[in-house]
Amino acid sequence: MRIGLKSRYVFTLLGMLLPLLSTCGGTLPATSWPNATLVADTLMVSNNTAVYALSPDNGTLRWQFPREGDRIASQLYTAPVQYKNWALLGSDNKHAFAVNIETGQEEWRFDASGNRAGTAPAAASASATMLFFTADNTLHALRPSTGVPAWTFQAEEELWAAPAADSERVYLPGMDHRLTALDIDSGSQLWQQELDGALADTPTLSEGTLYLGALAKHAYAIDAATGRKKWRVDAAGWVWGSPAVAGDKAYFADLDGNVYAVDAETGRAHWQSPPLDSAVRGSPAFDNDTVFVATDGGFLYALDATNGNRRWGFQVDGNNADRLLADPIAADGLVYITAMAGENLVLAYQQESGQLAWRFQPEG
């Protein structure tokens, strides 16, 4: 099933992927849930009206952007992106903001709305020389010092994810099923590969290979230089998040709640976990020979990376049924998650035991 050309569709996850629905019905936009990024000693969390910078050690709040209510700087769901000592923040009302990572001070803002009201899926990413912001169906390549576009690229359908990039090329996933490689300096198209389903997440770029999932029960490895398919792995359910690559393996999950480990070079299967409690929207996290997976049903799991056996797993908030839609982040002995609808916005757990280390909920 092709996701509708020139139509505005969104997904809502309620333990499983429901049929495509029009945005007029009030369902969730493509990325309207909290997202986080860990940069050195700062955990940045976007959640609608603000982005919060926290200490990853204990969850102490360092700064908040914006400091006060701002009609333009709102609907901040895009995962923050680091560029040197700045972070690029994005909003579903088609604006991007560059802020100082240490202070939260705004450096510049970019308006992609074209003076038209309304919201659209938005996402951000960065390379060594350029910042990228997607809003609606347009990719904007922004100069980091000013936020002025160097070039733009328009896709046929909405873009739900930001591109990956290296020093030469930008790799843009599209809901039109196409993965497009663009010249990083000019934005001219270099190659395009049409896959079997919509591409809703930023590809993982590792050693010249792009790894990504498709909303058509497949995960792919694509040669970054040529666009050639290296392999395709079939899954039981649609694959929204991109595989995480660690060593010689790639780990991904599907919307039926299965987790997979495959050979990163050949796609050969290593293991498949028993189905988890509910759908897995995000990408797994990998650290200390452990794969961490969060589910739409509000469970967090730690799986042995060598065989997929469960080390621990639990529901984060049984009373309020948190929904865990963002990618978990694993580093320095902790695993961080952002919850969509519970008592706490951010929770950090010990990787070894699953014991709660700290939690954060904004005031008010």
Characterize this entry briefly.
With 364 residues, the chain is mostly beta strands.
Largest sheet: 4 strands, antiparallel
| CA-based gyration radius | 19 Å
**Number of DSSP helical runs:** 0
Poorly predicted runs of 5 or more residues: 1-30
Extended strand count: 34
Mean pLDDT score: 90
Strand content: 35-45%
Tell me the helix content. under 10%
Shape: globular
Structure description:
The relative contact order is 0.11. The strands form nine sheets. The protein has a four-stranded antiparallel β-sheet, with no helix packed on it. It is 0% helix and 45% strand. It has 364 residues and is mainly β. It has strands at residues 9-10, 21-22, 35-39, 42-47, 50-54, 61-65, 81-83, 86-91, 95-100, 106-111, 122-126, 131-135, 138-142, 149-154, 164-165, 169-173, 178-183, 189-194, 204-206, 209-214, 218-223, 229-234, 244-246, 249-253, 259-263, 269-272, 285-287, 290-294, 299-304, 310-315, 329-331, 334-338, 346-350, 356-360. The chain starts with 8 loop residues before the first strand and ends with a strand.
Question: Tags for this entry?
Answer:
single chain; 364 residues; mainly beta; four-stranded antiparallel sheet; 34 strands; 45% strand; globular; disordered N terminus
Compile the SSE list and pairings:
Layout: E1 9-10, E2 21-22, E3 35-39, E4 42-47, E5 50-54, E6 61-65, E7 81-83, E8 86-91, E9 95-100, E10 106-111, E11 122-126, E12 131-135, E13 138-142, E14 149-154, E15 164-165, E16 169-173, E17 178-183, E18 189-194, E19 204-206, E20 209-214, E21 218-223, E22 229-234, E23 244-246, E24 249-253, E25 259-263, E26 269-272, E27 285-287, E28 290-294, E29 299-304, E30 310-315, E31 329-331, E32 334-338, E33 346-350, E34 356-360
Antiparallel strand pairs: 1-2, 3-4, 4-5, 5-6, 7-8, 8-9, 9-10, 11-12, 12-13, 13-14, 15-16, 16-17, 17-18, 19-20, 20-21, 21-22, 23-24, 24-25, 25-26, 27-28, 28-29, 29-30, 31-32, 32-33, 33-34
